[in-house]
UniProtKB/TrEMBL annotation:
It comes from the Bacteria. This is Uncharacterized protein.
Amino acid sequence: MDCRVGCGACCIAPRIVQAFHGMPHGKAAGERCVHLDADNRCGLFGAPERPLFCRQFLAEPEVCGGSREEALVLLQTLELESEPA
């Protein structure tokens, strides 16, 4: 599956615990990444500063669903289910 242009759900829903360019404390779940532009496109896509977490994320129907709204729900659910107890 190719990324849905203008979705940005993977740049909002997941938590990134490692510091990265522009976000020295990482990113909280549900927080919009500072590199996500107004069109919901990653400003670091293809750049070496892009976090490993983001480079390794693959768009899949199971996590991206059929729409941006569904992707946000699915990714938020995965984030909640993967939180340490």
